[in-house]
Design goal:
The chain is an alpha/beta fold. Helices cover 36% and strands 24% of the residues. Helix 2 packs parallel to helix 6, helix 8 runs antiparallel to helix 9 and helix 10 packs across helix 11. The protein starts with a helix and ends with a helix. The relative contact order is 0.15. It binds 8-demethyl-8-dimethylamino-flavin-adenine-dinucleotide. The site of 8-demethyl-8-dimethylamino-flavin-adenine-dinucleotide has 34 residues, from helix 2 and helix 8.
Length: 428
Amino acid sequence: MAQKLAELRESPESTAVVVIGAGPAGLTVGNLLRRSGIDCVVLERRTRERVAQRQRAGIVETRAVRMFDSWGLADQVLGGAPSDGLMEFRVDGESHLVSDDDDSEGPRARLCPQQVLVQKLTAVYLADGGDLRFEAADISLHDLTGDRPTVHYRTADGTLRAITCTFVAGCDGDHGISRAAVPNGALTAHTFEHGIGWLTILADAPPPARPLLAVSPHGFAAHFARGPHASRYYLQCPPDDHPDAWPDSRIWDALRTRLADPALVPGPITDREIFRLRSLVHDPMQYGRLFLVGDAAHIVSPLGGKGMNLALYDADLFARAVRDSVHDHDDTGLHTYSQRCLRRVWNDQEFSHWLTRTLHDAGDDTHSGPFQRGLARARLDRLFTSRNAARTFAELMTGLNPVPDAGAQNGPGPGAAAARGKASASDW
Ligand code: RFL
């Protein structure tokens, strides 16, 4: 083994960027680098089939659609129809439509399930001649603070491989190896547990006309399209609840009650899981030549639909930064990558947190108490009646609200750690 590793170090492969993980973040980085004429290798531990089946997000926000459009990729990688931008809030059975139309020109959000985006990104990347290696096991990162990091991995047939590169993109999600390769103390984790559980259900059942968020004293529930004949539902539950406590009949009864829809059409349930709502930010999003992208750097609670969209934002900034560095010897984008990403990360965390608190506090007041419930109901009233409040909401939904350029930031705040002392630890 030691001899084999020594041999590998003698004659490694070489590329500009090794991308760890073939989710939305890694595949977007891979595609954008290829479009920029920059060599890269994407390493993914799962099989292609497994990656292509992971169902989570359902909407690519307006900002991300325009990002793909600016790379000439929107039509190739985005499936689904344009969203009509309307979302239904149902409060105690009363319907309120809220729009994400912010009057801006250009293509708008698309109804595109995450697995469709991943399948299309994979197909386009491979058709462009991209190097994507599935079933890459035991990946380890070396010399991240040197000039040429090395990535070791094992192929499906057990062969050890080594690749040297200029940059590593850590796109392997919250439980990947990239962030774990960073020494203790180099990154700070900011975490928040919401104290809320969600039962999440996928079913082959008719989707709603538009995203539906329901608030009532029975607890929060939601219903989203996940394709022409598939739906995802969420039901608020205690964080330590268990899926076994939710047989089909209980699920459909709870959905009918909380969605105030006695005629809700059920269907075969294909997946049911319980997870705790939590939020997490790692600062900075860089260590040496390793750049963390997407869920590897941050987790956003699902309300607001920002997790995947933030991953796409990071991927775009990273690819542009590498392009400027490789083609123009301009490293500004790489040096400001973490700060700039974190400004949007905190922006989206705030929006998601606001929506999470509002929709849960407004309903089941055993969770928060009557005072918080009154505040949350007032926030909803304002959203439904004030044009300015609705417009701010629309801007946040589209992802088009301006976020200050972090490069100009001098004062303390999220991201500032990267600009101050940690810059030297994470500098390359
Ligand atoms: P992913 O999608 O987790 O992809 C990481 C990839 O890395 C691979 N990997 C490794 N590869 C090699 N070696 C290793 N050691 C590896 N470890 C992991 C994995 O196999 C995988 O292929 O991260 P990425 O690319 O950053 O994308 C992030 C998004 O997946 C995530 O933010 C969203 O799914 C979050 N999310 C939602 N986001 C939205 O924008 N809108 C939504 O409506 C939405 N709904 C959701 C969600 C997340 C959910 N879960 C996970 C709780 C609904 C749910 C239920």
